């Protein structure tokens, strides 16, 4: 039998912090790391446009999120694997799924900070909130 961590402790340790974005905040900077050829990113940008949310687009491949931004997002999503684009070609080529099991958090974050194609997209930082991927229901909670 494999030695697995206690799920209850893991859930407590990685409890997600729910934060929301407020257009009226003093500095409501929204940063969207995106890939122009990604249909999910295009849907997310359309959603923000329809909500009237001002944002700064950053090309995720040429300018990946910084280590500090990745650490901040990890605090939001709770699980390291959720930061990875698990359906991406580079993820499969590098066999990250196998390596992630033995990789330290620091190694994983360094890898993500170097290779934007490994990062789940869109990757959005909005005030105290952080989002990876596009889930319209979740985004509607954050961008009211």
Provide tags for this entry.
single chain, 144 residues, alpha+beta, four-stranded mixed beta sheet, 7 helices, 40% helix
Secondary-structure element pattern, one letter each = HEHEHHHHEEH
Neighbour order of strands in the largest sheet: 2-1-3-4
Q: What portion of residues belong to β-strands?
A: 5-15%
From the spread of the alpha carbons, the general shape counts as: globular
The top level CATH class name = Alpha Beta
- Let me know the largest β-sheet: 4 strands, mixed
Low-confidence stretches are: 1-27
SSE diagram, text form:
Blueprint: H1 7-13, E1 30-34, H2 39-51, E2 56-59, H3 67-77, H4 89-93, H5 96-99, H6 105-114, E3 123-126, E4 129-132, H7 136-142
Parallel strand pairs: 1-2
Antiparallel strand pairs: 1-3, 3-4
